[in-house]
Amino acid sequence: MAYSQNASELKEFEVMQIFRSDGVDSGPGYWAEPLKKTTKTSGGKDVVSTRKVGLTRLDDSDPRFNEWRLKLGLLLKQELSPAPQEGLPWFVPFPKGYWLYEKSKHFLVSGYPIKGKLYKTPQEFGVHLLWLLSSSEDRRDCCCIFCNTPDTEANTSSSNTSNASNTNANTNNAATKAADASKTGPLSAATTTGPSQGQTTAAGGQEASTKISTLKNRKPARLSATGAVSPAVYQPPARMPTVSALFRTGELVWYSHEQSWRIGLITISESTWHQITPIGHASVPMPKINKAPTDIRPFLAFSVPQVSQEALKGLSFDDVPWGDRVRPLQAAGNHNAVESLMLDASKLGALKINRSYSFFNRFGANNGTTSYKGIFLGAERIHVDDVLRISQTPPGQPPQNVQQPEAMDMVHFLLKGIYTMEASAGTLFFHGDVVRLVQSPVPEGSSILTPEGLPPVLLEEATYRNNSSTAAAWKWHWVAVEKNTWRREPDIKGRFYSMPRLGPILLAPQMKAGPRDKVAPALNGRLDAVLYGPNVGETKTRAETVRDIIPEHAVFKFDEQEVQFENDV
């Protein structure tokens, strides 16, 4: 019982890609120059001596490189997975700017911002990776041997004692912030296989498992949803989104199931995994599952196929007496027929959800106008300060039968407010700025948005494209096309996702090729993806929207600071 989209081939490993990086190893030639050392003679004169570093850069496909990746995977899975012994082994590619070298039969990891500091073991490097996976921008929260050290090494013994105390305080602070990091779920990604990986699994596992206590004694900082790509050209300010930039609790998504894709609702979101409740009908409870972001797709990435049973065609979810249909099948023990019926129920349930909306975080009401800070608009959860994909036809003009512009020519909507008005009952109003990403030279008269004033998703997008470009630095800019303008529900196509977050999931092959600065994912519009079925309109809460689509005991665990319903304000 598969949908039209094919899942990945059978996996040998779960790839844990780390997108945030502080690595500075620029590639071949980084260690080609002699390392210079200045010393003082007894007469006070400087004497400069040189020596060859002698580091041999390993090839990316070297079996020994893959062995390190597997060892790092074992260490991180032991730290981050609630069930480290279950599932496939993790495979951890080095973050951008880090590389493995060999010197005198010893292996060293290069790339730390201080050039001479090299990690000697997977355990040493793994501790630093935990910090890169976290949301912390403070190196004092990192417990690795280079970040968590006293400020000076040449002070008196009393000064050394003071520094050691400060270091311990920083370590304890990081541990306190991350006491629950090891409770997060499993992380997986697209398949990565190589001719030597199967041979190195056992060796990697044996060595790493003997030293796992090294990592266990170092508490990692709390993980973020997905690390941002570390910019090689332009360094953005340390600004992190307040809500997940990719998948959010309450959203309708596709998830991988064997060799197909199915539809479910995210009921719990953690930093590296999401709990999904499959949708169908409440009379047939289905077990919740945990999925990594790489095994999830936005609902608008695919179109919902037609129902398979002729008797259901043309009906809405609420038109079908699901309980009456499923009970005879359950009594007869016809499990295949029950599954087939529930697949059709999930399709009709998804259409119902996508044609509805409900508000949260009511902000104020005045003279018949009510404002909100958030809305479940169809499949997605939208907050003020999000960026939205919008119709390319200006409001008030009829749609034109012309080809859609290229992805990089599209305009987006920086949301500043969500409103309803008593005088226009049933109509949604969205207030904000229309923005576009343009390439230098910027058109004359354009209002350029400074990097410091950009919301995180726009900053990530511009930074990624400039780092991916083969041209000069910072050649892409966000400009305001219209300021303080208005759009209505039919104009909103869905949330805008930045390439460093959605690209590795939807466009992995294209992201590996270059240049990548003009690659963009293609997503359906909210109302374009569902061409049939009645319009549901407003519901009181998200739970009311999905009533009967999932079991009653399935509840959404929202962050109370992010989502509050109208009755709670």
Automatic annotation (TrEMBL):
Among Pfam families, the record links this protein to:
Clr2 (PF10383)
Under the cellular component aspect of Gene Ontology, which terms does the record hold?
mating-type region heterochromatin; rDNA heterochromatin; SHREC complex
Q: Residue spans with biased composition (Polar residues)? A: 189-215
InterPro entries registered for this protein in UniProt: Clr2, Tscrpt-silencing_Clr2_C
An annotated GO BP: silent mating-type cassette heterochromatin formation
Q: Can you give the residue ranges of the Cryptic loci regulator 2 C-terminal domain?
A: 372-497
Query: Which spans does this entry mark as compositional bias, Low complexity?
Result: 154-184
Region ranges (Disordered):
153-227
Task: Fetch the PANTHER family from UniProt.
Answer: CRYPTIC LOCI REGULATOR 2 (PTHR38046)
State the protein's name: Cryptic loci regulator 2 C-terminal domain-containing protein
